[in-house]
Design goal:
single chain, 187 residues, 0% strand, mainly alpha
């Protein structure tokens, strides 16, 4: 449990959230940096091949998010390990920073949407600048921080249920936006 149960917790929830967000941003920045470094390996591939691969994976991602049965069964990479409870219980700030960092890299837990994987492939194959790639990585971490922030701020179960109902629409809209962006980038 990331947040303490209330005022009796050993630390203020906002402080824990700040440390967690810092970890998420640093983890996302690391992932963006690694993707940028690895993007040099795809330089020998012909441009039409890279563009074709980007568009193919983007279309598969959109179809997967839309729930198409043939594509919906494509498994996404995941790390099924749970964080040990003592990481957050014994070393609250260090454990929170570590947990945030690992989540920010995108390799700690299951990412349920295909869009981050498609975006990582786009960055890998399109040879964007380091600042652009690092910024996208940090934005991934920030996006994950948004979930924790909304959880902390939300005190209304009805609002949480309303958000849950909208999630498929949000996910599909995000996937379509990513596909359109990729199409424009590949020109």
């Amino acid at each position: 449990m990331l947040f303490s149960p209330g005022w009796r917790g050993p630390a203020r929830q906002g402080t824990v959230l700040s440390v967690f967000t810092l970890g998420l941003l640093l983890g996302g920045l690391l992932s963006g940096s690694v993707i940028w470094l690895l993007s040099g390996l795809s330089a020998p591939l012909p441009s039409p091949f890279r563009v074709g691969a980007i568009l193919l994976v983007a279309v598969l991602g959109v179809l997967r998010e839309a729930g198409l049965p043939a594509v919906g069964g494509i498994p996404l990479p995941q790390n099924a390990r749970q964080i040990p409870p003592d990481v957050l219980q014994r070393r609250l700030f260090r454990g929170t920073l570590q947990f945030g960092f690992e989540l920010g890299t995108g390799v700690r837990t299951y990412v349920s949407a295909a869009a981050p994987y498609v975006l990582a492939l786009v960055l890998l194959l399109s040879h964007q600048s380091y600042p652009a790639t690092a910024l996208v990585g940090a934005a991934f971490g920030l996006g994950r921080a948004l979930t924790a922030t909304l959880t902390l701020l939300s005190r209304d179960p009805a609002r949480d249920a309303a958000i849950a109902l909208r999630m498929p629409w949000i996910r599909n809209f995000t996937a379509l936006t990513a596909l359109l962006s990729l199409t424009l980038l590949s020109r």
